[in-house]
Specification:
The protein is α+β, with helices and mostly antiparallel strands. The chain has one domain. It is built from nine helices and nine strands. Strands 1, 2, 3, 4, 5, 6, 7, 8 and 9 form a nine-stranded mixed beta sheet that branches.
Length: 235
């Protein structure tokens, strides 16, 4: 028995350690589902026509103004896209995302702001999933129109690859995030999925299933907008 104990101890030390479940990242995924549902269920919300034509949705819950002012922090959230080569399938498992950039004067005091970004075409989606993208430079961006009767097919929305919205202190509006950057957060993906997996593999290859913490986020979008109604993408 005495000889067995050192052997067992050595095996235990040599065995790979599985990463602990990161409650913070899974909490963000739960908050993404809450933010999406709350924003899309209010009367003066994102036009359904735009949601139905979006290839991807990015949500950043509770971004603080101070994080941008001092430059050392950034907003964190998640991105999901419609699956399939033509972006016409069900919504994918989420990839964790980071938002970085300059100060945003629209935020009031230290109030946390929720952001929802609609990615309107494959070029924008593939660029964001592959690397850091600066909004307004690497990808065209605009404040999204709002309201159930809003005319979605304006010149701005037709040209923009990304439409952005914000909510702070109960106020919901289209907002420009030009000058900020969005990128995949690979460290956060590791904490959620417990393995190294790239953002494109998560979204395009279905490399991982939807985690329990993102079920509300993804199932709500599947219910709210089950089909991509952009030209040529309907099935």
């Amino acid at each position: 028995m005495k000889k067995l104990i050192p052997v067992l101890l050595a095996l235990a030390l040599a065995a790979p350690r599985l990463p602990a479940d990161d409650k913070k990242e899974n909490g963000r995924l739960e908050n993404c589902g809450l933010v999406v549902q709350e924003i899309m269920d209010i009367p003066d919300n994102i036009p359904q026509d735009l949601i139905d034509k979006a290839d991807c949705v990015i949500v950043y819950p509770s971004v603080l103004k101070g994080a941008f002012i001092f430059g050392g922090s950034y907003g964190r959230g998640a991105m999901t896209c419609r699956t399939g080569e033509a972006f016409n399938g069900p919504w994918s498992a989420p990839t964790m995302m980071a938002l970085e950039g300059g100060s945003f004067g629209f935020q009031i005091g230290g109030q946390a702001t929720d952001f929802v970004l609609l990615v309107m075409n494959p070029r924008g989606a593939k660029a964001i999933l592959s690397s850091k993208v600066k909004l307004g430079a690497d990808a065209s961006a605009a404040a999204g129109p709002k309201g159930r009767t809003a005319e979605a097919a304006t010149d701005v929305t037709l040209r923009a690859e990304i439409l952005s919205y914000s909510r702070a202190r109960g106020l919901f509006a289209g907002i420009s995030l030009a000058g900020s950057t969005v990128r995949p957060d690979n460290n956060a993906n590791y904490k959620v999925y417990h393995k190294d997996v790239s953002a494109p593999d998560i979204v395009f290859k279905g490399a991982v299933p939807v985690p329990a913490s993102a079920q509300k986020f993804i199932s709500y979008l599947d219910k709210k907008s089950p089909k991509n109604k952009s030209s040529g993408k309907e099935i």
